[in-house]
Amino acid sequence: AQSVSQHNHHVILSEAASLELGCNYSYGGTVNLFWYVQYPGQHLQLLLKYFSGDPLVKGIKGFEAEFIKSKFSFNLRKPSVQWSDTAEYFCAVNAATGTASKLTFGTGTRLQVTL
Amino acid sequence: EAGVAQSPRYKIIEKRQSVAFWCNPISGHATLYWYQQILGQGPKLLIQFQNNGVVDDSQLPKDRFSAERLKGVDSTLKIQPAKLEDSAVYLCASSLVRTVYEQYFGPGTRLTVT
Predict the structure, then answer these.
(1) Of B10, B66, B75, B95, which is least packed with CB atoms within 10 Å of its CB?
(2) Domain CATH for B35
(3) Extended strands (E) in chain A
(4) Least CA distance to B93: which residue of chain A?
């Protein structure tokens, strides 16, 4: 069974600081990887996704994530955070086998950006 | 396009009572999901439908939870009887069949069982 670990539960950063949120997954086969974000009072929404190809994936709002297969990791990064990035971030994995595959989410990381 | 709709947004019930949640997916999305998100945890898939058929319900506590999607469009999730540990946000999501990994989420229903 697939699983996802997010080791940072709560991160507090000042504006303009750099961000890296850790995500490790456990699954022996080919995976699709995702970061979802939930801004205060809003729905969960897709931030970026990795299926294949270039392991460095760029998403919306200046976020990027790097897939390192040997480390089973898919860390999220942003060089300079803004106050509006305050949100909860979820890493998710999906086994890339057929249409019945499901998303497995990590426990989430709450990011608080201070002015 | 309209997003995934859910109702009610909030519900407070006593343990052993029953409750039902409703979801209307994005038009044209054949795949519909119900997730349970307990405070401090990520969403956990309860059940996945493709049209009106169940694809995966391996994590649905079938002794108290049930779900249906009779006409392949909207869906209801029911809990009967509710327990304290069912307090959570219940999220509905939908996707196209060919992109099941790109799911669109509704606002959720926050259930409190007292």
Answers:
(1) B10
(2) 2.60.40.10
(3) 3-5, 10-14, 19-21, 24-26, 31-38, 44-50, 56-58, 64-68, 73-78, 87-95, 103-105, 109-114
(4) A44
